[in-house]
């Protein structure tokens, strides 16, 4: 066991866990931040996506000991950011969600895309979101919501 | 005695010619041996470069490969503009600075795909021939302008090259396979190849 000081959504959190514990387990089990979901456990579906040091990261396969001092942003905190807020609003307005299980990961990946590529093409969306699986096949609405968020952010000069 | 003088001169010329010829033949033998040694060393280098730990990230396609069967990387991972994936799905989305043996994900500093000009496969994921890989790796317009000593240093010190001999364990807990020789042997083979002038096999 080891103690880690984590910066999560701008707050300092201390956990005492085995160094090999995946970040997802720390979030969900130790910190009770259950917005981030367990999907496949092998980084294949994207449901567990969070941002670590600004990079969309599959938290199910990253041991907490590998995080270091990089700030972590989860679905619980993404709305504090202008791009994150715009994406969440667009998700609601576009009525993207069906069952919703994968959507926190979808939103985290979409935010990462829009932060890097403010006006994404269909190919940009396909490539960046292609690793986030949705069993309800909400992909057309995800694409639409990303484009709506991009338009809103561009209009607002964000 | 002009006749004798002429005879001596002729004899001297013949002797010099014979000696020179012998030296030339010796030089040819040495060059031939050197070339053979260089090509033999290259064969060893090539056997490492085409091992899955190395060639899986020297693809000619829009994606990296995984495993000893060199299957397409899971999760629809794509190359991206600089070989590091795309914003929602970077290499660094999973691959950290070191191997994560508890989850079976390999890692190393600056994890990325080799650029397309350094591909060692064709677009059907078949390894290129020894001659073709040798031509690529010695083409300074396609190898980050590395000369022989630069290639040796790259093989000796580059963290992602060295990672191939410390690839961690798979998600199922078994060890990833290693290239067919030790890193020290690989560096020694590269050194012999470089010292003989980085010869390449003929052919395509």
Bin the strand percentage of chain B: under 5%
Shape of chain B: elongated
Distance between the termini of chain B: 63 Å
**Major sheet attributes of chain B:** 2 strands, antiparallel
- The portion of residues assigned to helices of chain A is 25-40%
Number of helices of chain B: 6
What oligomeric state best describes the polypeptide chains here? heterodimer
What strand line-up does the widest sheet of chain A have?
A: 4-3-5
Report the CATH C-level class of the largest domain in chain A: Mainly Alpha
Q: Profile the largest sheet of chain A.
A: 3 strands, antiparallel
Radius of gyration of chain B: 24 Å
Mean pLDDT of chain A: 97
CATH superfamily of the largest domain in chain A: [2Fe-2S]-binding domain
**Count of domain modules of chain B:** 1
Return residue spans of chain A where pLDDT drops below 50 for at least 5 consecutive residues: none
Q: Work out the number of β strands of chain A.
A: 5
Terminus-to-terminus distance of chain A = 43 Å
Count every helix of chain A, treating DSSP H or I runs of 4 or more residues as helices: 5
Please count the beta strands of chain B (DSSP E, at least 2 residues each).
Answer: 4
Q: Which topology of the largest domain in chain A does CATH recognise?
A: DNA polymerase, domain 1
What is the global morphology of chain A?
A: globular
């Amino acid at each position: 066991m080891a103690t880690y000081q984590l910066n999560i959504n701008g707050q300092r959190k201390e956990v005492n866990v085995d160094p090999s514990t995946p970040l997802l387990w720390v979030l969900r089990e130790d910190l009770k931040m259950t917005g981030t979901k367990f999907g496949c456990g092998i980084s294949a579906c994207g449901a567990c996506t969070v941002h670590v040091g600004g990079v969309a990261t599959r938290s199910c396969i990253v041991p907490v000991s590998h995080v270091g001092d990089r700030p972590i942003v989860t679905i619980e905190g993404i709305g504090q950011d202008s791009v994150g807020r715009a994406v969440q609003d667009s998700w609601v307005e576009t009525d993207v969600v069906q069952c919703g299980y994968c959507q926190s990961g979808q939103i985290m990946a979409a935010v990462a895309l829009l932060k890097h590529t403010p006006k994404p093409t269909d190919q940009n969306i396909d490539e960046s979101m292609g690793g986030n699986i949705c069993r309800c096949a909400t992909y057309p609405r995800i694409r639409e919501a990303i484009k709506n968020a991009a338009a809103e952010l561009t209009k607002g000069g964000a | 005695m002009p006749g004798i003088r002429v005879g001596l001169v002729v004899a001297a010329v013949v002797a010099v010619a014979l000696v020179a010829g012998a030296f030339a033949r010796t030089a040819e033998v040495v060059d031939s041996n050197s070339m053979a040694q260089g090509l033999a060393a290259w064969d060893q280098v090539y056997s490492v470069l085409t091992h899955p730990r190395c060639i899986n990230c020297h693809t000619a396609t829009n994606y990296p490969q995984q495993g000893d069967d060199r299957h397409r990387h899971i999760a629809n991972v794509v190359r991206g503009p600089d070989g590091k994936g795309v914003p929602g799905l970077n290499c660094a989305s999973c691959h950290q600075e070191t191997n994560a043996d508890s989850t079976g994900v390999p890692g190393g500093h600056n994890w990325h795909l080799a650029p397309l000009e350094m591909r060692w496969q064709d677009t059907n994921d078949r390894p290129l021939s020894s001659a073709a890989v040798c031509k690529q790796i010695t083409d300074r317009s396609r190898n980050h302008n590395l000369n022989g000593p630069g290639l040796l240093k790259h093989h000796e010190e580059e963290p992602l090259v060295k990672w191939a001999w410390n690839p961690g364990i798979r998600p199922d807990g078994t060890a990833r396979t290693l290239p067919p020789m030790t890193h020290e042997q690989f560096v020694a083979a590269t050194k012999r190849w470089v010292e003989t002038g980085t010869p390449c096999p003929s052919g395509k």
